[in-house]
Design goal:
It is a single chain. The chain is an alpha/beta fold. It has a domain of 191 residues: 3-Layer(aba) Sandwich (D-Maltodextrin-Binding Protein, domain 2), CATH 3.40.190. Helices cover 37% and strands 11% of the residues. A five-stranded mixed beta sheet has the order 2-1-3-11-6. Strands 8-9-7-10 form a four-stranded mixed beta sheet. 53% of the residues are buried.
Length: 485
């Protein structure tokens, strides 16, 4: 689940600080264009002389707003085409609705054989489905090279073949209020690698009533996304993978491989993490926006969220108030990957566009704007900068000016290192991405996640079943939903 592909909650709450914290922008920077492997590398037909018409890129809504950064990148690529005398131009089409609705729109258009879309921006969990159905083209292997973080690169293939290029990644992180812990008498407010959930719960216990009396608005220890949507699936998989190291509920062919014993252990972990003494009651009705707003409003001291929250929260909280650490246990990968539709008559040019949007400079731009880059060089190459014109990188202690590529309405207060990267990028974000796990990979992911969330919601009923009974029920239903050995 990368912030950019999950549904909003349906419960209509509007936390007071929501407007202040939802200012993150999804910046996809420019990169140098490169040659295309062409039809010989993939076995796909050439462009058949289709040099006219736009390369249409279908994606979800650009959170930077009308004329936002995605549109600016398309315009930049178009200018480069003009400079080289190319007749190709790209055009961005934003799909309305939730992630599920966007997926349905894309499936309908591509299954009908329509060539309306040339490039589609797919959630990482959709890649097996679109590839297995023959809706997207195989891509040249060199589109995903050794510079791409290995865990992220693995989201782009299916059946041993490359069908997409990682565009922006995502991973679960733990955000926390340093000031709340300090006010409760905690001397070491620096959480980091190796922090366990038991440690988080001990800190919550330490705060106790003292936290409520010392902090106006404080209610419970932590919050996350437990509404019946993909957020619950993500929290569940993180618990399952933490409880059973290396647990994979599907194999390389997408067949279900779980057991009642493993499911029971995962359900116990999820129940322990989210039990009432520690978890904000509204978490069971929260998606990303709601949980982010509750944390920013001061109702909790801990939050499980995605990297874009780092920039969002720093608009209203400073470094003495806000901390971020790897999520205890295992965290789930999210993000989006770019693919070329099978029906595209401009496949070669579309692949060149994808190279432009997923190259080294592009990923550095993405990181500079506060999101998870897919390439190691974005984190480690101090000589790499975003290709767009912008002021020199500020120091880690300064309050940097917003990048010209950003359309955020307020000043960018995100802490940065001397190279202009988010201050936590190398030591926290990159290791989290490298150690993250994927959700089950299957062409029937829709059936999996619907079954999974439906059963997990029973944990939060007035009279929940035991972990063993729920594990047996979940096991049986997943066997019906997915092929299995």
């Amino acid at each position: 689940m990368t912030p950019r592909s999950r549904r909003r909650g349906t419960y209509g709450r509007c936390p007071r600080a929501l407007a202040a914290v939802l200012v993150a922008v999804l910046t996809l920077g420019a990169c140098d264009g490169a040659g295309d492997g062409g039809s010989q590398a993939t076995g796909q037909p050439a462009d058949n002389g289709a040099a006219e018409g736009d390369i249409v890129v279908a994606s979800g809504r650009d959170v930077t707003g009308k004329g936002g950064v995605r549109q600016k990148l398309i315009e930049q690529w178009n200018r480069q085409q003009e400079d080289t005398g190319s007749s190709f131009r790209a055009r961005l089409v934003e799909l309305p609705g939730s992630a599920d609705q966007q997926r349905s729109q894309l499936l309908g258009a591509l299954q009908s054989g329509s060539a309306e879309y040339d490039v589609v921006n797919l959630d990482v969990t959709w890649v097996p489905e679109f590839a297995d159905a023959g809706l997207v083209q195989q891509l040249p292997d060199d589109l995903v090279d050794a510079d791409v973080i290995p865990s992220v690169a693995a989201t782009a293939s299916w059946g041993g073949k490359l069908y997409a290029a990682p565009f922006n990644s995502d991973v679960g992180l733990l955000f926390y209020r340093r000031d709340y812990l300090k006010n409760a008498g905690v001397t070491n407010t620096e959480l980091g690698k190796g922090t366990e959930w038991s440690t988080v719960q001990q800190l919550i216990d330490t705060m106790g009533d003292a936290g409520r009396s010392a902090q106006s608005g404080y209610e419970k220890g932590w919050t996350t996304q437990l509404a019946p949507y993909e957020g619950l699936t993500v929290n569940g998989i993180e618990s399952f993978a933490s409880a059973v190291d290396g647990l994979r509920l599907t194999d390389g062919a997408g067949q279900y491989t779980g057991s009642v014993q493993d499911l029971e252990a995962g359900l116990k972990e999820l129940r322990d993490r989210t039990n009432a003494p520690y978890t904000l009651g509204d978490a069971s009705r929260s998606a990303e926006a709601e949980s982010l707003g509750d944390f920013a409003d001061g109702r909790t001291a801990f939050l499980r969220h995605w990297p874009y929250a780092y920039r969002s929260l720093h608009q209203s909280l400073n470094d003495q108030q806000l901390g971020v650490a790897p999520l205890p246990g295992r965290a789930v990968l999210g993000g989006q990957n770019l693919a070329v539709t099978k029906a595209s008559k401009r496949g070669t040019a579309a692949k060149a566009l994808i190279r432009f949007l997923t190259g080294r400079d592009s990923e550095r731009c993405l990181l500079d704007e506060g999101f998870a880059a897919t390439r190691l060089s974005a984190y480690n190459d101090n000589g790499l900068t975003c290709a767009t014109d912008k002021p020199a990188a500020p120091s880690a202690t300064a309050s940097p000016s917003p990048s010209p590529t950003s359309s955020a309405e307020s000043t960018d207060r995100m802490p940065r290192d001397k190279q202009g990267r988010p201050a936590y990028a190398r030591d926290t974000l990159l290791p989290a991405l490298q150690n993250a796990v994927q959700r089950p990979r299957t062409p029937l992911y829709g059936a999996f996640t619907q079954t999974f969330t439906t059963e997990l919601r029973r944990l939060y009923a007035d009279k929940p079943p035991s972990e063993l009974q729920l594990a047996k029920d979940l096991h049986a239903k997943l066997q019906r939903a997915l092929p299995h050995t």
